[in-house]
Amino acid sequence: RRGMATEVAAAGARMPVSVLVLVALVVVCLSANGAAAQQASGVAATYNLYNPEKINWDLRVASVFCATWDADMPLAWRQRYGWTAFCGPAGAHGQPSCGRCLQVRTHSVSCYGSRVV
């Protein structure tokens, strides 16, 4: 049903499905190791409600996969982008994906920057 705002409850908050399921074009725009940008379409990423502001941007408190490698990065680095989980199918997986930045285009949001945690 085009144009109809559908919402899903996540951790007590109601959010549009388009925010919860990011589907469309994902561009890896920056890389912790300087690798060239990659692009893929039709990639699905899920939204996790990390609430980093409420946990002082602490990757260990959030129990994220990349905490092992990135938890001691400077606070400014951890605050620069929102946090997301990313599971391909394109691009790096596991530790090599940690700290990379994604530029996500969705049906409702033209561009959203997020760091893989």
From TrEMBL:
Keyword terms of this UniProt record: Disulfide bond, Signal
Coiled coil stretches, renumbered: none
Keyword flag Chaperone: no
Pfam families hit by this protein: Barwin
Gene Ontology molecular function: any one: RNA nuclease activity
Presence of keyword Mitochondrion: no
An individual GO BP term: defense response to fungus
InterPro entries reported in the protein's UniProt record: Barwin_dom, PR4, RlpA-like_sf
Stretches assigned to the Barwin domain: 38-117
Name recorded for this polypeptide: Barwin domain-containing protein
Organism this protein belongs to: Aegilops tauschii subsp. strangulata (Goatgrass)
Taxonomic lineage of the native organism: Eukaryota, Viridiplantae, Streptophyta, Embryophyta, Tracheophyta
